[in-house]
Amino acid sequence: MCGIVGYTGGNQAAPILLYGLSRLEYRGYDSAGLCISSDAGLTTVKARGKLANLQELTSQGTALPGVCGIGHTRWATQGDPNDVNAHPHESASGKFAVVHNGIIENFRKLKAFLTAQGVKFASDTDSETIAHLIDFYYKGNLLEAVREATQVLEGSYALGIVSADDPGTIIGVRMCSPLIAAIADGEAFIASDVTAVLKYTRDVYYLDDGEIAVLSPNSVKFYDAYGEPVVKPMAHIDWDADAAQKGGYAHFMLKEIYEQPKVCADTVLARIKGGAVDLTDADIGADYFKDVEKIVILACGTAYHSGIAAKYWLERYARIPTEAILASEFRYAHPIVDDKTLAIVISQSGETADTYAALGEAKRLGARTLAVVNVRGSTITRSSDRTLYINAGPEIAVASTKAYTAQLAALALLTLTAADQRGTLERESNAAILAELQRMPETMQKTLDATAETMQYLATLYFNQSSIFYIGRNLDYAASLEASLKLKEISYIHAETYAAGELKHGTISLIEEGTLVIAVAAHMALFDKLESNIAEVKARGGDVLCITQERCRADPEQVANRVVAIPDVHEMLTPLLSAIPLQLFAYYVALAKGCDIDQPRNLAKTVTVE
Ligand code: AGP
Asked: Which one has a higher pLDDT value, 181 or 539?
């Protein structure tokens, strides 16, 4: 989704803005632009396509003199991805320039009003409306004009604004789209996320909805929607800036796949004390689950898939009725939720608009809320009663990998805690699963070592497929949903998951000679059932790749065309391991096809619009 940066200080702004935008490239975009505000007025340069085009156009920023400016990477929502629709947008007077992330839902009404006042629009975007509105309200006080303009906006917005009348000043505003402000010695920044500014400072402020930040080189001041000053706490970011670099890997996605053992250790190990799970860091005490009558898990995409695995776990091991619901559907589904319901919202970014909206709806209905989130200080964590951080570190590739397995690990800890508090799982079984979870970092490493080469080879055999089907039952079904999403996101191969038993109810008609079907059969208790489904596929000419455990008693090679084994593990934890070869398969297929793996077409890392 769109990325915003702003800089004011003593150095040339354009190279700093371009650097910041390069750190935000991972969010996904289709055009980019800069506006420098100086005594000479505003200078705006925009270019469709990759940031490299803007870098070339501005000679890496050196062609744009000035020490204050704003930059933007645009992920098109309203209006085609072209130079004119790229941000920043200037007001008709040329006095103000605006960058925007979000959607202005009432822009047609506002545009009609402004057009009636004689304003001429240059672009097809909703965002341009904001620049003209500021012009309309401006009577010599920039803060006041911005405040009045935002009062009439409906929708979501993070804004960066500069004015020709106030060179050296940047205004940032936030409503339901992420924005941070940051300060260093004689410099101030705004950005969509901290990765854009980490090279310069670790002292950041997270804006809340309705807040306005006014930046000058030596200060950042905050105001509420009524223009009243607000005192905000500063947060210090302590993660390593190198964590957001590729570190020798060809792609962030591959690096993040290989980081999974360490991430799993960071999620799990400090939370096991004296042989028991201790979630006090998330303020989850001994009675947390005792009066929970129902759980709803709300999430999107990959996070939803970890939620489906957790649904199976919580029902089986903690015996709590649990539904995993797509966050985008929840608000409009008239859900049955009350104060005995625990709403677990899962989100890597903590900024996903649909998930945030679902969280709001769950709260409105009286549910208790728990966020399972990666990014510290993000919107969803600040709006939830409690947060269980997954500690995955920055995830840069659009295709989520390490956040997925870290979510699973955190949800497994949560399940074992719930089962313990409700007495639904024998102590020995609970302890045995926990011990395996504790060993999971090594088991994941073994899985990487054992499967990477094979998956690379298999990718060379199958990268030309036009459709690939995934099947599985129960937890393997949950794992398959994630595996097919991974493949389609980055390789653009049509990929679908079906509950294995469901295939014969229609989809089997699509199986023809040579169609690849990936059968995830890591859940040993259901292997025989899956074996029958595999036989049905093979009988129709399908080529079956089976992912199972080393201990599989049946001779899987008699069953499938090819077999990849993950180390033996308790069935509850199989999704943490089966994910690994399937992520590698998606990666190597996309590599063989020459796809843009870290920034796949049309996708954004953080989806901040509903
Ligand atoms: C995963 O590979 C995707 N990029 C996407 O489905 C993602 O998981 C989804 O948009 C939710 O994001 P979140 O975890 O940041 O809320």
From this structure: 181
